Amino acid sequence: MPLDIDHIQVPIKFDLGGVIDDVWQAMPVLQQFGEVTIDAVDDRDARSYNISYLATHPPTVTIRLPDSEVRLRDVTWQARTDLVVYSALGVVSVDLRLARPSRTLTGDDLRRFYDDQVAANNLDYFAYLDDIGVLSPNLASYRQSAQANSGTHAGWVAAPYVTRLRAALLDCPAFRPRERCYPFQNMRQFFVLRRTGETADPHLVDALLGLTARTPRPTDGAATPSWPELRIEDVIVRSSGWSTVAVLDGQATRDALGIVQEMYGQIHAQWFFCQLWIGVDPADHEDERLITSPAEATDHRVAQLARVQIELAHGLAEIGNVDLMFRDPARVAVARFLIHAVRVEGHAEAAQRRLEQLRAILEQVSNLRTAYFQRRLQLLFAITAIAGVVGLYPAAHDLNTTWRAWTVILFCSLALMCWLAIRSMSRSEADPRRGRRGWRPRTGGAGRRAGD
Description:
Layout: E1 4-15, E2 18-20, H1 27-30, E3 35-38, H2 43-48, H3 51-56, E4 60-64, E5 68-72, E6 75-86, E7 91-99, H4 107-131, H5 137-148, E8 153-154, H6 159-169, E9 175-177, E10 186-187, E11 189-194, H7 202-209, E12 229-232, E13 235-239, E14 243-248, H8 254-278, H9 282-292, H10 299-316, H11 322-325, H12 329-342, H13 344-396, H14 401-430, H15 432-436
Parallel strand pairs: 11-14
Antiparallel strand pairs: 1-7, 1-10, 1-11, 2-9, 3-4, 4-6, 5-6, 5-8, 6-7, 12-13, 13-14
């Protein structure tokens, strides 16, 4: 039995590249892109949010972009596109809301949707990675494959909006850029279906949750995959993390669905905040190289590394802590359900391990720099002492033979000590194992990338 599709929400998260501290000061820049609405400014929102949170965190901003058409294979969708800026986290989401097409959709159309929209998004995604200079040779063949099928899909645009927004904010005094910008994106699917009979087709729902064109059917009588489920009023929500399906009946209200989708955006943004810190950054290897080459660890670089830790620690303080943001039991219940479904806790733990690794690197680099400059100071003292002895050597001609001999012995001893100090420093700087003693890399989170 076909289900009546209401719409499909496709949020695509990107790193904004920094935090907007003052949304109202940044308003002239944001309004260049479209109509701007600010979250949590009326009495209804103030009822749901903690006032202390609103007082200390910049609000979420939504920018309405022009409507467009998206063609996926032989289905044309009317698309509404919003730029949702999570100011406090420094995350921006391109939310594409695909309305029900004019022609009736079959179950097969919905099952193929994921493959079709991934193919359309890859055209936009690979072009974006190429533009910012991070399209690796490993991805070249994938891009060629995506381009070969470019005639099948059209109208899917996401990354160019983010690139333009980042560039516009760079000159805005309210924008505080981060030391690094994570180049990759993360896309999810949120299907909103409307029940057209007594029961929804469970196999279709499971296929959408599993993001597969093949309907999973048990062969031994066992139940289909047990996805977490939540009911709020007449909206039933199930989620596999990467895909979420909300089934509405005829009495379901838009307010209940709106709460679920708003919370989904917030929780997905928290997950992505962890992702952008866990993801491998080329500069990570530069930080680790400072351990074996402490002479390259300038005060500026060490200060940058310290700021990165502060930014990560500040964001992690509120990841997964919905009671910090909300006081509405309904929103808190929905948020906790989605935190579990999207698996935010595991991602936050990996980001915490990343923070611990950064702290270990900074501590070790600081200790090595101290030891390095101490050795330099010892060498300077040795050279100064030799220079003093050399300066006294002409006066030694006026001394008797015994004192002259002791002067020569002292001069040779100091010269030998200086040579040994220089040789010891050279060996210490050339042997990378000396720089790593006492430091152990944390495993689990750092350097491991979840699926993009």
